[in-house]
Amino acid sequence: MKAKLDAIDKKILELLQANSNITNAQLAQEIGLSPAPTLERVKKLETQGIIKSYHAVVDMASVGLGVCTFVTVSLKGHNKENIEKFIKAISRIPEVVECHHVTGQADFILKMVAPDIPAYQNLMLEKVSNIEVVDNMQSIVILSTFKDSRVLPLP
Q: Could you tell me the CATH number of the domain that includes residue 84?
């Protein structure tokens, strides 16, 4: 269900997406309200599930993750049982940082990270391709990233 957001709610969401560490006092000043009603609005957005969580964005290279890929995966059969088996298995692989059920030639697209190509190859051979319902995989290695925005454009 789509939530009804007024201009102040949208401004709060824009500011928190840009900097989730902003203090309530700074947020209040930016939106032109006092701190108490600002905090109430933020809590309401959290309670409604509009704000799902707050995260630190970690630089991959700085923590030794030099390879990032997208992998399309087709299952042996596109049925509920196989989908559930795949999701359960893929959820246990920490290097899979995103998993999306998609339309098109593949059933899923994964975003995966690894320290280097040998580690990535091992991940694919030992973990992903060993999931019993996986039929076909295609890897797309990310060479460089020019836009990686976590900020949603609010209508």
A: 3.30.70.920
Query: Which amino acid is residue 146, in one-letter code?
Result: F
DSSP assigned state of 63: G
In degrees and rounded to multiples of 5, residue 49 shows phi and psi of: 80, 10
| Integer CA distances (angstroms), 59 to 65, 66, 67, 80, in order | 9, 10, 12, 36
User: Would 19 be classed as within a structural domain?
Assistant: yes
Tokens of 108: 């899923």
Domain count, the chain: 2
Region 57-81 average pLDDT: 94
In this predicted model, what pLDDT tens digit does every residue of 132-150 receive, in sequence order?
999 999 999 999 999 988 7
Residue 111: which H helix or E strand, with range?
A: strand 108-114
pTM of structure: 0.84
CA distance readout (Å), 25 to 13, 21, 36, 73 = 15, 11, 9, 47
Question: Which residues share a beta bridge with 71?
Answer: 110, 139
CA angle 30, 36, 37 (to 5 degrees): 70
Q: What residue numbers bound the domain in which 67 lies?
A: 61-141
Q: Where does residue 147 fall: left (phi above 0), alpha (psi -120 to 50 degrees), or beta otherwise?
A: beta
